[in-house]
């Protein structure tokens, strides 16, 4: 059975890191997360897998689909699709799991560097992190669901304690200022632990959040491109470049 390889990015998977909307709601501000995701996934599919025929389509409600129609993609089995997805998937874990990026091994007591392909993604996303997470969404402005979530991703307790004390004494400190506080401590750390943590945090807040079930199975039902979404009556139109 031949079937396009499809990737689905749904904004509901970003609810924990977007402050402008939630649930089925979507706006231009949270669409920036989708834009950043496409800027990473599109070159990965083209440059690392050699796919050429990619169609990015608005889902009609709260996300975007990528339809890959190269002959090699059409012929992929379910097992092969799962393997390909596992290579691209970085964000893993439900709401109960604080740290969703676990991409490093430990070598001789030191954390490994990012895989070269993931390093390229990180380089693309680091600037977007500042624009989207710090400046627009202001994800770390408030305590609950904000900077406390950030502290959960920092592996060194003395760093967490120092930052918590500073931010509780200055509750109106903006997200960009809080991130700057963490960067100062990261720069002073010689072990590389905080540097790795900072990279993983940027990936957790900006890397594509893929709906795995859509990509893994050829029999997964999807509405075709260019049709009308029955609930919203929005057309499923091409949305790339964004």
How is this structure best summarized?
The protein contains nine helices and five strands. By secondary structure, it is mostly helical.
What does this structure look like?
The mean pLDDT is 90. The strands form 2 sheets. This protein has a 3-stranded antiparallel sheet with strand order 1-3-2. A two-stranded antiparallel ribbon has the order 4-5. The chain folds into 2 domains: 1-90 and 209-242, Alpha-Beta Complex (DNA primase, PRIM domain); 96-207, no CATH class. The protein is globular. It contains 9 helices and 5 strands; from the N terminus they run E-H-E-E-H-H-E-E-H-H-H-H-H-H. It is mainly α and 242 residues long. A hairpin with a 4-residue loop joins strand 2 (54-58) and strand 3. Helix 4 (116-136) packs across helix 8 and helix 7 (175-188) runs antiparallel to helix 8. One of its GO terms (molecular function) is DNA-directed RNA polymerase activity. It holds the Pfam family DNA_primase_S. InterPro entries: DNA_primase_S (IPR002755). Belongs to the eukaryotic-type primase small subunit family.
Calculate the terminal CA-CA distance, rounded to whole Å: 32 Å
Spatial strand sequence of the major β-sheet: 1-3-2
Structural class: mainly alpha
Contiguous helical run count: 9
Low-confidence stretches: none
Q: Can you write the helix and strand succession as a string?
A: EHEEHHEEHHHHHH
Helical residue percent band: 40-55%
Which radius of gyration do the C-alpha atoms yield? 19 Å
Q: What proportion strand?
A: 5-15%
Largest sheet: 3 strands, antiparallel
CATH homologous superfamily title of the largest domain: DNA primase, PRIM domain
**CATH class division of the largest domain:** Alpha Beta
Mean pLDDT: 90
Count of discrete domains:
2
The shape, in one word, is globular
């Amino acid at each position: 059975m031949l079937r396009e390889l499809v990737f689905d990015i749904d904004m509901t998977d970003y609810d924990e890191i977007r402050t402008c909307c939630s649930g089925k709601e979507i706006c231009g501000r949270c669409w920036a997360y989708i834009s950043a995701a496409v800027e990473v996934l599109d070159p990965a599919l083209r440059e690392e897998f050699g796919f050429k025929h990619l169609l990015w389509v608005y889902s009609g409600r709260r996300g975007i689909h990528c339809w890959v129609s190269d002959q090699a993609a059409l012929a992929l089995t379910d097992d092969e699709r799962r393997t390909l997805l596992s290579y691209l998937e970085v964000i893993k874990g439900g709401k109960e799991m604080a740290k969703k990026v676990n991409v490093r091994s430990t070598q001789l007591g030191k954390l490994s560097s990012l895989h070269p392909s993931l390093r390229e993604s990180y380089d693309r996303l680091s600037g977007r992190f500042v624009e989207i997470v710090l400046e627009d969404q202001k994800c770390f402005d408030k305590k609950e669901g904000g900077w406390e979530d950030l502290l959960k991703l920092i592996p060194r307790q003395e760093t967490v304690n120092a930052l918590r004390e500073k931010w509780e004494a200055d509750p109106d400190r903006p997200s960009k200022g809080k991130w700057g506080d963490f960067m100062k401590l990261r720069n002073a750390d010689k072990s590389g632990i905080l540097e790795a943590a900072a990279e993983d945090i940027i990936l957790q807040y900006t890397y594509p959040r893929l709906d795995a079930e859509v990509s893994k199975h050829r029999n997964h039902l999807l509405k075709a491109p260019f049709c009308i979404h029955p609930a919203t009556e929005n057309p499923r139109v091409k949305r790339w470049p964004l």
